[in-house]
Write a structure and sequence with these properties.
This protein is 47% helix and 21% strand. The chain is built from 5 helices and 7 strands, in the order H-H-E-H-E-E-H-E-E-H-E-E. The strands form 2 sheets. It has a 5-stranded mixed sheet, covered by helices on one side. A two-stranded antiparallel sheet has the order 1-3. The radius of gyration is 20 Å and the shape is globular. The chain starts with a helix and ends in a 6-residue tail after the last strand. The model has no long low-confidence stretch (mean pLDDT 84).
Amino acid sequence: MSAEQDTAERKRWEEEREKIASMIAHEVRNRLSAIVTGVDILEMGIVNNPSVYRGIREAVQKIQEVVTRFLIYARPGIPELINGDINLFLMEVTTNLESEKRFSRVKFEKDLTGESIKIPFDRDMMRQAMIDIVLNSLDAMPDGGILKVRSAKKGAFIEVRVIDNGIGIPRDKLGQIFQPFYTTKKENIGLGLSIAENTVKVHRGKIEVKSEKQKGTRVCILLPLDKKKE
C-alpha cells in the first residue's frame, strides 16, 4: 500500500469512527433524556404512575442494548467452529420465530435440503445473525405474507436463502443496509444486519441482498462446507 493509499484509508477510518461515535452518542442521549424526565416527574411526587417507571426501565434497557450490540459489532470475536447440522439449526431458528403470536399472519415455508449437512459454525453467533435477518424480513410484512427459508449445496458452500414478499427496499437505500446504525424503524438501533454481515464474514462466507420495492427481498448467504485448511 502506497503512502497516499495509507493516508486515504486512515482518513476513511477516522471519518467512520467519528460517524459511529456520533450515532452512539445520539442514541444514548435520547434515552438519558427520557430517564431524566421520568426522574423529574417522580421528584414532583407523582409516584403512582406505572408508565413513568416503565419509561425509565425501557430507556435503561435500550441503552444496554445499544452498548451490547455495538460491542458485538466492534469486536465480533473468533467463532467457535463446531460441526453441526445446518438444516436442523435453520429449522430450530425459524420454528421458534414462527411460534410467536406477533407473526401469526405470516406463512413460513421451509424448503431445506432433505439430507443432513454438517458444516463448521458458531451456533450462538449464527443464531443471532439468522434471527436478525429473519426478523428484518418479518418486519417488512406488517400485514402478513410469506417467508421462505431455503438451503442447497452450491459447490464447496451451503447456500441459505431468506425470501419475503414484503414492502421491499428502495434501490437507492439497498447499499446502506449493512452500514452500522442504518435503520428505517423508530425503535430499531440499526446494528442487526451489520452484525449479521460480520458474522458471515468471520465464517469465511458471503452475504448478498436483492430487493424490489413492493415485491419483496431475498437474502442469500454462502457458508463454506469445510473448515479452513491450515
